[in-house]
Amino acid sequence: MEYQAQAGQLASPKAISSKSNTRRRRVSDALWGYVFILPQFVGLLVFAFIPLVAVFYLSMVSWDGLGSIQFVGFKNFIDQFTSDDLHIALTNTFIYTIISVPGGIIVSLLLALGVNRVRGKDIYRLLYFMPQVTSPVAIAVIWLWLLNNDFGLINVLLKSWFHIQGPGWLTDDHLVIPSIAIVSIWASVGFNMIIFLAGLQGIPDTYAEAARIDGANRFQLFWRVTLPLLSPTLFFATVIAIIGSFQVFDLIYVLTAGGPGKDSYVMVYHLYHLAFEQFTFGPASAAAVILFGLILIFTLIQFTLQRYWVHYES
Description:
Blueprint: H1 2-10, H2 13-58, E1 61-62, E2 70-71, H3 75-81, H4 84-115, H5 121-129, H6 136-146, H7 153-162, H8 176-201, H9 205-213, H10 218-229, H11 231-246, H12 250-255, H13 267-277, H14 281-313
Antiparallel strand pairs: 1-2
Helix pairs in contact: 2-14, 3-14, 4-8, 4-11, 4-13, 5-8, 11-14, 13-14
């Protein structure tokens, strides 16, 4: 009898109506969720997935953008792997990455550590973040004047203050990549500083207090406490910085156009040269696929190293 009474309660019209309303509410919430993500999904589909598939297709064909399309298989990849221009672009890109990524991370981290200790953090955040919201072309034009050999402000100050003849920052084959890397570090330091500052403010003060009680000095506190707790933030900033360094173009285009000679000829400028100067979209797409593969490999390596590091720390 008790079981039948419970079954009757479960099968009552009110219980059935409540379940039906709950189900309709869940369906309605799911539909609204799909409505809200639809614009982003369409944008991702149109501007990311479809172009990605198109690049893989174009890398297998010979096409100048107007004439007939001819399928050539892996010929574009073979030509690119044996191309001197690609080798030069890869070498310059790696050199730029080696200079800009560690330099940018170190400078940003030092700034974040300094800003985290002073009052008025919001003002410093705004000041350091301003280059990030400025057009890269505008930044490049300003630095093009600053680094000019003859009338650039930097060389003028070196000559008037220290009686030193400034070098050709953008014309010397040994200085052009480091000079562009310095401009890139200056332009991106605000973004990384904000990321590191958020990570530092997320570390509880109790860890530092306990380390000080144990007699740790400032260097030990940073090396043993702050840096390990900041490792997820450091990993994120490093991944983003490496991806950005492989995709540098706007600064190169405005400052040097790949020169002098081809001393600042990087991968994305190589794609631009093939696609929009020579109108050889097949080789340009093959070079883009190669760049995509390199970025993917380096990103996977970083994720693998991060997992090993977390496992070792634990």
